[in-house]
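REQUEST
  id: r-88c1
  op: predict_structure
  target: Triosephosphate isomerase
  payload:
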Amino acid sequence: MHKGKLWIGTNWKMTKTIEEGGRYTELLKDIEGTLSSDIQLFIIPSHTALYPVKNQLSESSILLGAQNMHWEDSGAFTGEVSPLMLNEIGIELVELGHSERRQYFNENDIDINKKVHAALHHKIKPLVCIGENMEQKNNSISKETLASQLKICLKGLTEEQVKQVMIAYEPVWAIGERGIPADSSYVADIHLFLRRTLVKLFGDTGREIPLLYGGSVNKDNFLEYIDIQNVNGLFIGRAAWNIESFQEILHSLDSLLTTDVSKV
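RESPONSE
  id: r-88c1
  status: 200
  body:
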């Protein structure tokens, strides 16, 4: 296991009602109270659940995130949510550039870059999602694709600003119901490449940016991924939507951390 804070979170996508999310959050709070402080949990509900869930988390260290936001503070952007609105709720982070936003809502790296700058301006931590699709992987341009996404999404950031950013590598072919879990060796190679790219862009500060892995992470494979040197956390989908499954993963991670500390 690597040293430092371990980021573990989940994006609920469009799955839980306010009532369902409330029950889940109460159970997660109980679990979080039993975990090492080295594990930083975060949840990303639908926009409708953000306000009630924030109230539930008022005395918890679990961070609350939004699934998307516009880069403008206000304006004629029907269906959008602004960083000012998210700030009013008190959210701590925002997920930007998820592959489903790119695929179904035509989001691109230039727009994501605007959102990153807007989030940082409003002191919201950006969680920037990047990933190659199967066609890009089969054509051996995964690394070129990921480097391009990083360079554009993080364009114009200072070394100080980028310290507040997290990156989630989610290969498009590995997520969703039909996702194909990636081999740990592939993830290790990609995360090493991402780390080196960040160092080229931001110097030693690039070593401090948390790199999370997401893509069909479940209770059967999460230990393989978390043991990789440049994986600083996991962005878990379906395996975290079920609280019993998530609890199993979290307690296993906590046991590993406790064992590592006892060996020091």
